[in-house]
Amino acid sequence: MASHCNGNSDHSESLFKIPPIKFTQLFINGNFVDSISGKTFETVDPRTGEVITRVSEGNGDDVDLAVKAARHAFDHGPWPRLSGSERGRIMMKFADLIEENVEELAALDTINGGKLFGLCKVMDVPGAARSLRYYAGAADKIHGTVLKLSKGLQGYTLREPIGVVGHIIPWNFPTIMFFMKVAPALAAGCTVVVKPAEQTPLSALYYAHLAKLAGIPEGVLNVVNGLGETAGAAISSHMDIDKVSFTGSTEVGRKIMMAAAASNLKPVSLELGGKSPLLIFDDADLDEAANIAFGGIFFNKGEICVASSRVYVQEGIYEKFVKKLVEKANAWVVGDPFDPRVHQGPQTDKKQFEKILSYIEHGKREGATLLTGGKHIGQKGYYIEPTIFADVKEDMIIAKEEIFGPVLSLMKFKTMEEGIKRANSTTYGLAAGVITKNLNVANTVSRSIRAGVIWINCYTAFDVDCPYGGYKSSGFGRDYGLDALNQYLQIKSVVTPIHDSPWH
């Protein structure tokens, strides 16, 4: 079983002095304000299950105010009318301010989401600044095309900002997801209303504060804390929002599509669930394969949409591979995410914690072999051991449904054709991986699996320049790369006649 480090808040204070919470209201039209109803809700520290603070609870009325501010900023304000280079300059300043506050921002995602403090400092928060700079550099490179029309006409296209965008972001990567959505929208000249996950609103509010300091005009970036069924639903169905981008569950994604269609037929981008396969072939380096497979599922405590939760190992190396994987699980340290010795912090909230444990019980009842883990750790907080099941069948619940936690299903395959078929036996299609030294195998598998991103001899190898999104029930649309920027732009064709032209 995994080892465990002390996870109490007193111990955390000895490791890092947690800063006071500065922002708990809604951020609308450049100001922090209470919700219209005056309601608040608790935000909880998953290390202990104790309340950190209360934040304002926005609902449909607050969303209306935020949309009104965003609409005015888009229709009459300076942001979409600035040159791309000027928008980029302000976004660069925003990125600089993020880097100046990296420790405080990382601490917010740690106490609010159970994320590793050290990793947030070197990956999540610097990644936010990188995203802003990437799209800041693209803001003055938005071009249309000149058209050669068949008649006596001249034509060209314009790329125009789509308008007011509603962003509904998840709780597993509060910082990264905030800027994965917001950065390209700002670069395009859009104005935005962001609803952070109710579990992890604290860093989003801090980013709103920094946006104002950076010089982003009033109404351009608004943050409305609230519940999905109220604030999220209001964004999805709002008649004056021009686009919605959502990352979360497939179930909620369907509801957002229905609300968007039933209101003003706004376009939506959906990055949804996954049950991603990782195929490991006989020729793989065992140590490298074990490291990749282990990190693919247990990184971020398994709370990652692309988690390699189904690992298929070719039968020639299966037994040796399983042994290495179990050894790694037994050496894995679960505990206080402020502790630099810790590899895995608590699950984000009690609901997710209990859901994961219930899936583990399903796996046991259905006859899968529990190799290691399977239990919660400690007397308080939402800690779960890294859990590995073997002898998993395709029709088992743990092989079919997204668990979103530190639970791995191991399966064996004989041939490449069998591996591909089983990898595709899912309603999801977000990501997949293949580990092999054979280039032909790597090429065949990567072109045969129906998923939005395929990693060869690596996993979770994200980059802001690499488009990311799903096939099938994992959604549509792309985050990252210039494809993401284009999602926030409309194409307008302009045609005029050319009289007495010497050529056509």
Query: How would you sum up the major sheet?
Result: 7 strands, mixed
The end-to-end span amounts to 75 Å
- The helix/strand class is alpha/beta
- Count of β-strands: 26
**Radius of gyration from the alpha-carbon trace, in angstroms:** 24 Å
Helix content: 25-40%
Sequence of strands across the biggest β-sheet: 16-19-20-14-13-22-23
- Give the overall pLDDT as a whole number: 96
The poorly predicted ranges are none
- Tally of helical runs: 16
Keywords:
16 helices; six-stranded mixed sheet; alpha/beta; seven-stranded mixed sheet; single chain
Structure, explained:
This protein has 504 residues and is α/β, with parallel strands linked by helices. The strands form eight sheets. The protein has a seven-stranded mixed sheet with strand order 16-19-20-14-13-22-23, sandwiched between helices. Strand 19, helix 13 and strand 20 form a beta-alpha-beta unit. Helix 2 runs parallel beside helix 8 and helix 3 runs antiparallel to helix 6. The model has no long low-confidence stretch (mean pLDDT 96).
